[in-house]
Amino acid sequence: MPELKVKGVTIVETFAEAFPMVGTRVIITAPTAEWAMISARTMTGFATSVIACGAEGGIERSLSKSETPDRRPGVAVLLFTMDVNMLQTQLRNRVGQCVLTSPGSACYAGLDGEKKLKLGASLRFFGDGWQMSKVIGGRRYWRIPVMGGEFVCEDKTGLTTKAVGGGNLLVVGKSHKAVLDACTRAVKAMADVPDVITPFPGGIVRSGSKVGSKYAGQIASTNHAYAPGLKWHQDSELPPTAEAVLEIVIDGLTADAIHDAMHAGIHAIAKGGSRDGITHITAGNYGGNLGPHHFHLKEIVG
Amino acid sequence: MSALSFELKRRTEQRLDLSSLVPSRLDGLNRKQIESLSIATTRQALTVGDAFKVKGKDVEQLHFVGTDDRCDKIGAKLSGGEIVIDGDAGLLLGAQMKSGKISVDGSAGVSVGASMSGGGISVRRDVGDQAGGVAFGETFGMKGGFISIGGDAGALVGERLRRGLIVVGGKAGDYAGGRMVAGTILLRGGAGRHAGYGNRRGSLIFGDKPRHLMPTYVDSGVMEFDYLRLLETWLREQGMRIRLGGRARRLMGDMAVLGKGEMLILE
Asked: Looking at residue A1, what is its pLDDT?
């Protein structure tokens, strides 16, 4: 079978194996775009992986004044977990500690849907009896008096159980710089795709993991098959020229959104062609038996 | 399908009870059956056919033409559909309605939208007393929905209001928001005396500083309210040309009762 190449970069015939997640979106607004972003960044800090963060979260995009409910600059944030209870806890804690506390912020539902998560419905108790509920156009908002004025928070936000986590691309190249540049381009391209986030630092993971370890109690450990320093080992999947491998992990509200993000990512990585030092684009999976979503790179490129 | 329309033939000697002319009651009736519905309020018999020229078919879209202040209970207990009134409306317009839309080109009588729980009423000109107030047999006033009044409102607008929004474009009478429990009344053209009397948790929003302030309201000074921005956005989406801004003076009251209500006086 002929190898599939995009501009000289080999697209390995494999697939990204992804898992069902539950997800939600909230909209954070503030007096300035800068403060909306500060609040959103704080809320999605330490939200790279459910392995130890409780949730995976990120900034979906900035919103202009005309797109937000209160006509102030805003940011759309996505948050994902493995089950609804955890999503509820994480949402309450993160909005309570990072958005409520942020100067001039307000927080609104970003997703409709039959199933709901409590937002202001639990944060209202911070008002200690001074909170006020207001229904505008059928949506309930809470007004909580705080030192900075008033924190406005919508009562509930929607959730989806159709979210998908763990869409990924592994980028193999001849130098760390080449791989980092390509991945940075890819994350930027994916940022334009709606309904997805790349939860890791700057969207990129440098320490992809495998399930389990030789040590008891260590649930995840280094993906040694892709560590360039262990190329000598029989498990290695890397070509002799590989000097670095970086991964981009994608969480999305739908499987289609992940598909679109991977498409945008692959083409952004291969943009400069193999001359830029990128040799392979591959993806992580567990043999196909663990996750129900398989994103085949060959289909995505086509 | 064309709207089902009722054109008033002449001013009647008695008041008319038009509460039966709502989509849920008219659905499935033919022209003859509709014309034989009783709308009398006295011992003198009177049917729809006696007072109105009936045209059209679509029961989800009702059109009243040439109605006057004796045409009572139009759209009462409405639960969906749209009613357009080319003329005036009598008392209890849209009282206890649950959903749907009513618009009046002229004025309406007392108790517009009394104890309504949803939907929207818009009256282009004036309304009588107790708009959004308490319907007969109810303990609360309006419980949800939206009333927009283009002109002036009588006394006790939003009496015992529990939820929902009333916007008065002109001037409101005395006791605006009297005994209101919660909900919001936006008074763009000011109000008479004793506004917010007995207000528990509701919001009265004034376009200008009111001339009479109850002594049982306590000043909290001026601050920013994102809530006003939300409200402004929604009102604009409803097609209202309105600017609330984000700053207002907040007075809390009525301290003679619960005291968790507020007056927001726009800056």
From this structure: 46
Q: Which domains does chain A have, with CATH numbers?
A: 4-18+162-301 (3.30.70.520), 22-160 (3.30.70.520)
Burial of B201 (0-12, 13-18, 19+ CB in 10 A): middle
In a domain, B23, yes or no: no
**Bridge-partner residues for B120, per DSSP?**
B101, B146
What span, in angstroms and rounded, lies between the C-alpha atoms of B215 and A229? 79
All residues of chain B having their beta carbon less than 8 Å from the beta carbon of residue A72 are 226, 229
The tokens for A108 are: 């609104």
Token representation of residue B159: 């009496």
User: Is there a contact between A233 and A222 (Cβ–Cβ < 8 Å)?
Assistant: no
Interface of B with A in 236-255 (CB under 8 A): 237
Summarised one tens digit per residue, pLDDT across range B162-216 is 999 999 999 999 999 999 999 999 999 999 999 999 999 999 999 988 989 999 9
Element (H, E) at B31: helix B31-35
- Whether this model's ipTM surpasses 0.90 comes out as yes
Q: In this complex, is the C-beta atom of B232 within 8 Å of any C-beta atom belonging to chain A?
A: yes
Q: Is the dihedral of CA A152, B119, A114, A63 positive or negative?
A: negative
Is residue B103, in this structure, part of any structural domain at all? yes
CATH code for position B112: 2.160.20.60
Number of folded domains that form chain B: 1
Alpha helix (H) residue ranges in chain A: 33-43, 84-94, 120-123, 176-191, 255-269, 297-301
User: Would you state the structure tokens that stand for residue B58, as one six-digit string?
Assistant: 């679509």
**Quick one: pLDDT at residue B113?**
97
pLDDT recorded at residue A277: 94
Residue of chain B whose Cα is closest to the Cα of A67? B233
Cis peptide before A83 (omega within 30 of 0): no
Q: Which of B184, B223, B237 sits opposite A134 (nearest CB)?
A: B184
DSSP state letter for B2: P
Write out residues in chain B with pLDDT < 50, as ranges. Answer: none
**Per the domain annotation, does B19 fall within a domain?**
no
Q: What is the pLDDT at residue A113?
A: 83
Per-residue pLDDT, A2: 63
pLDDT mean by block of 10 residues, chain A; 302 residues: 84 95 98 98 96 96 97 98 97 98 98 93 96 94 97 98 95 96 97 97 95 91 95 95 97 97 96 90 87 94 84
The pairing of beta strand A15-29 with beta strand A106-109: antiparallel
Q: Which two tokens stand for residue B207?
A: 């376009």
**Full residue range of the structural domain in which residue B139 is found:** 64-266
